[in-house]
Amino acid sequence: MMLRFLLLTLAAGLRLNNDPVRLWEEHPASTAEELQELLTSMIVEAGTVQVPHKAGGAEAQEVELRKVVADMRKPKDLLANMIHTIWQSSSTKRCHQQLEQVMGNLTLTCEGLQPKTDWILDYYASPLPNKTCTQSVSDIFASGDELVSILQVSRSAVASLDVSDETFRRYQALSFLRNWLVKLTRTHHHALIWAGFWDGDPQKRTTKGKLSNFAKSVEHATMHPDSFLGQVIEGSQNLDACYEDAQTIALAGNMWSIASMSFVLGMREKAQGTVIALVNKKITGERNLSQSVLSTHEIPTVGLAAWGLGFWSPKVIVVDLMGTCSQTSPALQKQLFARLPTWAKSMKRWSAEAFARRSRLQWQCIDCSGTCSLDDALAEHVEKLVKAKEAQDRKDQELRQ
Ligand SMILES: *[C@@H]1O[C@H](CO)[C@@H](O)[C@H](O)[C@H]1NC(C)=O
Ligand SMILES: *[C@@H]1O[C@H](CO)[C@@H](O)[C@H](O)[C@H]1NC(C)=O
Ligand SMILES: *[C@@H]1O[C@H](CO)[C@@H](O)[C@H](O)[C@H]1NC(C)=O
């Protein structure tokens, strides 16, 4: 017994001595072809299932949320304030303060940028009234989710008046919004996304400080809070008081949809070759991965931007700080494709296979758990992967010219 223990310890020690740096485990990459095949079969499968139509429900909810937003932004007199104070729980009150602060800031910032709507809308027979920044901010919170799906409406469909009035109205809203909001998501460096880092980590392995240092050493920036929009949201504690009530959850969810869309569109605009995702979340239990902004909004938007808008082929590199790549990767890949079957269906001239070939996105996951940390050695390794992808992209570019 004792001997066996000794041998095991020795063996472990030897292994560490032989390879003192590489404490992470890199899983084989999913190739572009593998992911294309997976996506094709998802689209084919979804084609046989009737998607429940929710348009009516979405519109009713939008109307209701618009009222909440309008109430929130109305200047309040003393009496209204007193009634609010009596009526609302302290978390609702905090949530409203957070929302008001974000809305106020975004409205002023929008006005400073003097955004414009796509000019093709001017040629519509009955033009819609010009958007204002106040309305545009209300659009974010009341209908963010719906607006993201309008990305798939092509400009030429709008130009040829081949869309419903409802879609036209949303197209105008999205066009105005993109004109100012994407500017607020610029980061100086390439952007990375993350979930589950917090300063309370007793081991100090996965704090925001560690995250930010790692981002710097791979010459990336975190989208939130490094971009202006990220700072505005973080300035209101990421709306943390708004997750207790269905209505304010919907408002915050809409905001995250739009914010993630803008972040990822920013990456696509820059033709960023790699998307680094740092994940420190369990798959099951409370506060699990499936609840995170990364999983519900950011990764699905990467899928939209790559295949839906098309012709963007980043390599996604997931670093899993819990060492659960074997579960995290499939769960996140499912999210990557989540919005695509509906999108593919609306592009009638594209077969499932042809649609899947619109991107050559690749995927790799690196487990980094136990004694592995976001240190210089790992940063160096990830940077090597980023540089290799850049070199590959340059070569592909040359071949095409
Ligand atoms: C909307 O704004 C444009 C300038 O961007 C202006 O030319 C046009 O007259 C405005 N339309 C309405 C209805 O106010
Ligand atoms: C909006 O928030 C940003 C980031 O926190 C801050 O720098 C800026 O001063 C704020 N602007 C207004 C008008 O409140
Ligand atoms: C993830 O968390 C949510 C909310 O806490 C919960 O409803 C869901 O069942 C969890 N998922 C798993 C797989 O445990």
Order of helices and strands: HEHHHHHHHEHEHHHEHEHHHEH
- Low-confidence residue ranges: 10-18
Work out the helicity level: 55-70%
Helix and strand content put the structural class at alpha/beta
Number of strands: 6
Beta percentage is 5-15%
Q: What separation lies between the terminal Cα atoms? A: 67 Å
Number of helices: 17
Described by strand count, sense and barrel closure, the largest sheet is: 6 strands, mixed
Which small-molecule species are bound to the chains here? 2-acetamido-2-deoxy-beta-D-glucopyranose
Shape by Cα distribution: globular
| Gyration radius, rounded | 23 Å
- Calculate the mean pLDDT score and round it: 86
Number of discrete domains: 2
> How do the strands of the widest beta sheet line up side by side?
1-6-5-4-2-3
Describe the structure.
The chain has two domains: 23-47 and 189-223 and 272-400; 88-186 and 227-270, no CATH class. 59% of the residues lie in helices and 7% in strands. It has helices spanning 2-18, 32-47, 55-73, 78-87, 90-113, 133-149, 155-159, 165-181, 208-217, 223-226, 228-235, 246-269, 293-308, 325-336, 340-346, 352-356, 376-400; strands at residues 25-26, 190-195, 220-222, 274-279, 315-320, 362-367. Strand 4, helix 13 (293-308) and strand 5 form a beta-alpha-beta unit. 36% of the residues are buried. The structure holds 2-acetamido-2-deoxy-beta-D-glucopyranose (NAG) (3 copies). Residues 116, 129-130 line the site of one 2-acetamido-2-deoxy-beta-D-glucopyranose.
Pick out its properties:
Kidins220 protein; six-stranded mixed sheet; signal; binds 2-acetamido-2-deoxy-beta-D-glucopyranose; globular; 17 helices; alpha/beta; 401 residues
